[in-house]
Amino acid sequence: MPSFVLSQFDSEPALEYEDFDECVDEFFSQAEKQRNKEKVEAKGNSIFNKVTRIQEDQQKRIDGLKKEQDMSEFKAQLLQKYSFEAQAIIDILSVMLNSGISWRDIKRMIKEERKSGNPLANLIHTVDLEKQNAALLLDAVDEDEDHILQVEDRYIDNFDPVVKVDIDL
Questions:
Q1: Which residues contact 23 (CB under 8 A, 6 or more apart)?
Q2: How many CB atoms lie under 10 A from the CB of residue 127?
Q3: 107-112, long-range: CB within 8 Å, 24+ apart, which pairs?
C-alpha cells in the first residue's frame, strides 16, 4: 500500500505496515504498554507516598516520646530539688489517711493551711485520695539560694516555670 509522508514530518522516522490491521494492532499494543507502565508508576508513587507518611508519623512519635522523656527528666530533677518537701507532704497525708480522717476533712484542712500560709500546703495542687496520689505545683525557677536548680536550657525552654508533678502517696 503506498504511503504518503507530509513534508512537515519528512525529518522524522516513519513506520510502514503491510496492512491497516497490523497498524491498528501495533497502535493498541503500544497503548496497552503505556497504560501498564503508568499503572506501575502510579503504584510505585503510591507506595513511596505511604512509606513517606509512615516515616513522618514515626518521626512525630519519636519527637513526642523525646519530649515526654525530657519532661519526665525535668520532673525528676524538680522532685530532687523539693525532695524534703515532697516527702513531708507524703508523710503528712499518709498519717492523715491512716488515722481515719475523712477525705473531705483532709481537703478542707489543706485549704485552711493554704489560707494560713503553710508552705507545704501551698505546694499541693490537688489530692486524689481514690488513686492515692497528689499533684504538686513545683517552682522550677526559684530564686532562693537553697533551692537553686541547675537545669539544662533545653528543659527550661520547653516548659513552664511552675510544673505540676504527680506523686504517689
A1: 17
A2: 21
A3: none
Strand pairing of 133-139 and 162-168? antiparallel
- State the Cα–Cα distance between residues 148 and 145, nearest whole angstrom: 5
Number of domains into which the chain is organized: 1
Residues 14-62: pLDDT tens digits?
888 888 899 899 999 999 999 999 999 999 999 999 999 999 999 999 9
CB 55 within 8 A of CB 133: no
On whether the pTM is more than 0.90, the answer is no
List the domain range (segments joined by +) for residue 95: 55-168
Residue 94 domain-assigned (yes or no): yes
Instruction: Encode pLDDT of 100-126 as tens digits.
Output: 888 888 888 888 988 888 888 888 888
Q: Is residue 115 assigned to a domain?
A: yes
For residue 109, tell me if it sits in a domain.
Answer: yes
Grid coordinates belonging to 68: 515526654
